[in-house]
Design brief:
Elements: H1 2-14, E1 27-33, E2 44-49, E3 55-56, E4 61-66, E5 69-70, E6 74-75, E7 81-82, E8 87-91, E9 100-101, E10 113-118, E11 124-130, E12 160-164, E13 177-181, E14 195-198, E15 212-214, E16 220-222, E17 244-247, E18 254-259, E19 267-276, E20 286-293, E21 321-329, E22 332-341, E23 354-361, E24 368-377, E25 380-385, E26 396-401, E27 410-417, E28 427-436, E29 442-445, E30 458-461, E31 473-477, E32 485-490, E33 492-499, E34 510-514, E35 517-521, E36 529-532, E37 544-553, E38 563-565, E39 568-573
Parallel strand pairs: 8-9
Antiparallel strand pairs: 1-2, 1-12, 2-8, 3-7, 4-5, 4-6, 4-10, 10-11, 12-13, 14-28, 15-18, 16-17, 17-28, 18-27, 19-24, 19-28, 20-21, 20-27, 21-22, 22-23, 24-25, 25-26, 29-39, 30-31, 31-36, 32-35, 32-37, 33-34, 37-38, 37-39
Length: 574
């Protein structure tokens, strides 16, 4: 096949003759912890210099306020310079890497409060408000966005903090903070992994998942068929089989977890099997869990109540971004697809979450193990319930546009309010599949070269590529009507571009992939064409990756070998 396609490319010749993050350019509050489960002797605030030059922070002030007024403020000593990419930590001597010791315990309020950094001229450099669900009042001038909405505590045995999702990333919106392991004086960043797949079968039941952090208890591996430990009761294995994982604090209350993988703000996909227990709860009792992305949740996973079936003014949930939320009450189970935005709920919110789907889950109908999927490209989001992983058919599918796509990874949360733990079904997942960046859908790379219309051929997809969807198409635009063109497909990109101008093409014509198949395409009167496909549902964990590129013969070009070419597109199906 490779030789055939290369001959087709040669025949076509013969007929003629990867974005950078926009970081804040300043010093920011990069990480903080204001409440721990012991004597509050581990509280700290970390600054980070996101600029490319040293910054003199002598005389700068870190101040805090609550509803009662100003709290203690801390002034940076003279002759203090913060190097590019360096950290500066306020806290007690018990905090690792502390730069300025400012007390011993209880340095900041364990309630809603502002933290504001001012320079030597008393100008605000950065500011935030935490636990904003309790109201702003006099703190309103010090908030960015909705503030950090949810509640927080750090467990001494499992310490966490509010951390910027990437060091220095500041959109002037306190949503930039996510739940992470504490790292005072060191980077918040977590691995940028394009493909992650975890079936749990090679792990030992009872062990903590090392690629996650939990607010109270880190998610644990379970044998779903065996009750006890971190599995409240025995259930059948998932369709994937073998072990699974739960996000649950057996001591009761709520628990949250973050997957320690960096999440793109433009392309991100998460898919798994989740277990749905639709048995109605005792009147007045309830369970709720979430699987979300592009955000975080609070450490208590305060109960969201999108249906308002529970009532009682539940507005403290700290989910941000987009999530599937499952809730069981005495009415049975309901699954919601929610765009939480900045995370605010209730009458104090500037903009509340938007519920885009509500699916009743009933025993014997659509309960048990079911596939869940969330994916985003730009501002376009799709959610899937049921069906086969990697496939569109046999599933409930919902589409939405989010007005506020953001940086943030994958998070989990579970909270219960029941009296009998034997009836619990905490969040239980299997075959967790996460893809970021180019691995989540489609991605253009390399250079292109225009035809005589002045535009270069372009490849795009009309939607995420899922098997079992006959409407998925590769679409081509900017083709010159009547000019012969070849679409080349292959399973590998070249490690470096091969320029073809030595063969007589214009500058910019490059071979970017190793071609394996080729198809003749041609532009209509509008310079467009398309290829449909992917109708057979063949699930493959992590999806199938391939590459596409167009070469077009345009005799109106002045070059000895008059070729135009597209960028290459990396495509993941499934």
């Amino acid at each position: 096949m490779i030789r055939t396609s290369l001959r087709a490319l040669i025949a076509l010749f013969g007929a003629a003759a990867l974005g950078q993050l926009a970081f804040a350019q300043g010093v920011v509050i990069n990480e903080f912890q204001y409440d721990d489960s012991g004597t509050d002797d581990r509280e700290f605030v970390e600054l980070y210099n996101a600029t490319a030059a040293p910054v003199d922070i002598s005389g700068w002030t870190l101040e805090s306020r609550d509803a009662s007024g100003a709290n203690p403020a801390y002034v940076v000593p003279g002759s203090t310079t913060l190097a590019p990419g360096a950290f500066y930590v306020f806290g007690p001597a018990s905090v690792p890497n502390v730069n300025q010791v400012v007390g011993t315990t209880n340095l900041w309020e364990n309630d809603n409060e502002s933290l504001t950094l001012r320079d030597a001229a008393n100008q605000v450099v950065d500011t935030l408000v935490y636990e904003a669900n309790k109201g702003l009042g006099v703190l309103a001038p010090f908030v960015e966005g909705e503030g950090i909405w949810g509640n927080f505590t750090s467990i001494d045995a499992n310490p966490t903090s509010w951390s910027r999702v990437r060091d220095g990333l500041d959109n002037d919106d306190n949503r930039d903070f996510v739940l992470r392991p504490i790292t005072p004086g060191a980077s918040n960043n977590v691995p940028q992994i394009e493909k992650y797949y975890q079936p749990y079968d090679a792990l030992t039941a009872g062990n903590a998942l090392t690629d996650m952090v939990g607010s109270f208890v880190t998610p644990r591996v379970i044998d779903p068929t065996v009750a006890g430990g971190f599995n409240s009761n025995a259930i059948v294995p998932s369709p994937q089989g073998g072990n699974a994982a739960t996000c649950w604090d057996p001591a009761g209350g709520g628990n949250a977890a973050t997957v320690l993988i960096d999440g793109e703000n433009q392309n991100l996909c998460v898919e798994c099997y989740a277990y749905f227990d639709a048995t109605p709860e005792v009147a007045g009792e309830h369970e709720t869990w979430s699987i979300g992305f592009q955000g975080t949740t609070d450490s208590f996973f305060n109960t969201p109540d999108p249906s308002e079936n529970i009532g009682g003014g539940l507005i403290a949930n700290g989910n941000t971004g987009i999530s599937w939320v499952y809730q069981t009450t005495d009415q049975g189970g309901t699954l919601f697809l929610i765009d939480h935005g900045n995370g605010a709920w209730g009458p104090l919110a500037q903009s509340e979450p938007r519920v885009h789907a509500m699916i009743p889950v009933r025993t014997g109908f659509n309960d048990g193990w079911r596939r869940l999927r969330l994916q985003i490209s730009g501002d376009f989001v799709e959610g899937f319930f049921d069906g086969v992983p990697g496939c569109r058919e046999f599933s409930w599918n919902f589409q939405l546009r989010t007005p506020s796509p953001a940086w943030g990874g994958v998070y989990l949360g579970y909270r219960e309010f029941v009296t009998n733990n034997a009836t619990l079904r905490p969040l239980t997942i299997d075959a967790l599949d996460i893809r970021t960046g180019a691995a989540s859908g489609m991605h253009l790379f390399g250079r292109s070269a225009p035809n005589s219309t002045g535009f270069a051929p372009r490849i795009e997809m009309n939607k995420f590529g899922l098997y079992g969807d006959s409407n998925v198409a590769l679409r081509f635009s900017n083709l010159k009507p009547g000019a012969p063109a070849q679409l080349f497909l292959g399973y590998f990109a070249l490690p470096f571009p091969i320029p073809l101008d030595g063969l007589g093409t214009q500058s910019g014509v490059e071979l970017l992939i190793i071609p394996d198949q080729n198809f003749t395409i041609g532009g209509n009167i509008n310079g467009r064409d398309a290829v449909m496909g992917f109708t057979i549902c063949t699930p493959v964990p992590g999806g199938v990756e391939f590459f596409a590129q167009i070469f077009e013969l345009d005799t109106a070009l002045p070059d000895p070998l008059p070729l135009a070419s597209s960028q290459a597109m990396r495509i993941v199906i499934g």
